[in-house]
Design goal:
Strand content: 5-15%
Strand order of the largest sheet: 1-2-3-4-5-6-9-10
Radius of gyration: 22 Å
CATH topology of the largest domain: TIM Barrel
Number of helices: 15
CATH class of the largest domain: Alpha Beta
CATH superfamily of the largest domain: Aldolase class I
Distance between the termini: 35 Å
CATH architecture of the largest domain: Alpha-Beta Barrel
């Protein structure tokens, strides 16, 4: 069965504006918001999990590849979303979670990871072997040949899994693949960087040349029927408190070089917080797969914080309050491993970053039992009281407009979900034709 992502290449060859948002999140409210928006237009959605979120050892979401698939499908069933319109993807699939171990060990883990993803029915695979491993030379750049060699090993493992899958299901969709050596780290930059460099046209072509040569050596020439994208740095990134906005003039040489390769698009990582007009320009310029992650969970965090402030206004008995912000802060201080390397400066700087940072390291704590309990209690508390329009206007002005106009129910869950919808809408605008003039608005 044909992979729906191949339609992007066909449409772009015909001069039709086409792209796809890659939603990288395991947050339940985020996934619900994505699917709700897709139902409006009968869309297919691409939902991805990163290798540090989901892997054979559980990742920080305590899920395997099968667990994540079943988790997403369960949400789809709960909101009556057609599961055939879900493309599951694996992001940064490779040795990243084990990069401090020797190459032999890390690559064995990576082979198991990619095999499991394809066997579980993931049909979009980002093969990321760009990082140095434990016994790679510290003072040398990792050669493209080594990156491609490791990529070929993982591709072969994916193909093995797909052939096994075909025995069970002759209609199984063939995965498509993303490769590349200039791969931003997942979750945004750890430091603010004023020297962000766009991938050079030569660097992009060298990646293709090297991968073709290595894949041919491994007898994998047919892989290019399914390699649809190259990860490049088009000049976008975000950090703790700032982000680089896309400038198509900076990327014009790179994007012009892409025209030589009509069966390839660029995949742009870290597109979070870009203005919608800039996202659309990226898609127009060939960066047709636009990834977003922390901006989605940050929208959930903002929505829940707004509810938490409403709780302080509406629940007079302090002993009954969920105090979500305080619970989250306590959990982050109790176990700092998921933010300590990212947030720097004074104690106040770090405190503010833990709460409000664009890189949203708080997302790693939303599955902690204490945080889950606080969120549930907050939602329960505000479900028992009336959230008046003046209060809503103060703390959630965008949602206020929809509630005022009868388009949104003022329940805690729906209010937070709509905060995510605001982000999803930007990405729909980027990949759709005439999106903002649809009668739905």
């Amino acid at each position: 069965m044909k992979n729906k992502l191949l339609d992007i290449l066909e449409k772009r060859t015909l001069g039709i504006h086409s792209g796809v948002p890659s939603f990288c999140s395991a947050n339940k409210i985020v996934i619900e918001a994505i699917m709700d928006q897709a139902k409006r237009f009968d869309d297919t959605v691409l939902i991805e999990a990163t290798s540090n979120q989901v892997n054979q050892f559980g990742g920080y979401m305590a899920m395997t590849s099968v667990d994540f698939r079943d988790y997403v499908y369960k949400i789809a069933d709960q909101i009556d979303f057609d599961k055939s319109k879900i493309i599951l993807g694996g992001d940064h699939l490779g040795p990243l979670p084990w990069c401090d171990q020797p190459a032999e060990v890390a690559m064995e883990h990576a082979k198991k990871l990619v095999y499991d993803c394809v066997a579980a029915g993931y049909t979009k695979v980002h093969l990321d072997t760009s990082m140095k491993l434990g016994d790679d030379p510290v003072d040398e750049m990792l050669p493209n040949e080594v990156i491609a060699e490791r990529g070929a090993i993982l591709y072969a493992e994916c193909d093995k899994a797909y052939q096994e899958l075909l025995k069970e299901n002759p209609d199984a969709v063939h995965p498509v693949y993303i490769i590349g050596s200039e791969v931003p780290i997942p979750g945004g930059a750890q430091e603010e960087d004023d020297s962000l460099k766009v991938t050079s046209p030569r660097g992009f072509e060298q990646t293709i040349i090297t991968y073709r040569k290595v894949f041919e050596k491994h007898g994998l020439s047919d892989a290019w029927n399914y390699i649809i994208g190259i990860v490049v740095q088009p000049g976008v990134e975000f950090g703790v408190s700032d982000f680089h906005i896309y400038n198509r003039l900076d990327a014009v040489k790179l994007c012009n070089r892409l025209k030589k390769y009509p069966n390839i698009v660029f995949e742009g990582h870290s597109t979070d917080y870009q203005p919608p007009a800039k996202l659309r320009e990226m898609v127009e310029d060939g960066i047709a797969i636009i990834k977003v992650g922390p901006a989605l969970t940050n929208a959930v965090r903002e929505g829940i914080f707004a509810l938490s402030m409403m709780e302080k206004e509406l629940i007079e008995d302090e002993s009954l309050r969920a105090n979500f912000e305080e619970v989250l802060e306590a959990e982050m201080l109790k176990n700092d491993k998921d933010w300590i390397k990212h947030y720097h400066g004074s104690e106040l700087d770090k405190k503010l970053a833990r709460k409000y940072s664009f890189s949203d390291r708080s997302r790693y704590y939303f599955s902690h039992p204490a945080v889950v309990e606080a969120q549930e209690k907050l939602f329960e508390n505000l479900s028992k009281v009336e959230i008046s329009l003046p209060i809503l206007h103060q703390y959630m002005p965008l949602q206020y407009l929809k509630v005022r106009d009868g388009k949104l129910k003022p329940t805690p869950h729906e209010l937070v979900k709509d905060a995510v919808v605001q982000v999803v809408e930007d990405y729909n605008y980027a990949v759709k034709t005439n999106y903002m003039v649809t009668p739905m608005f």
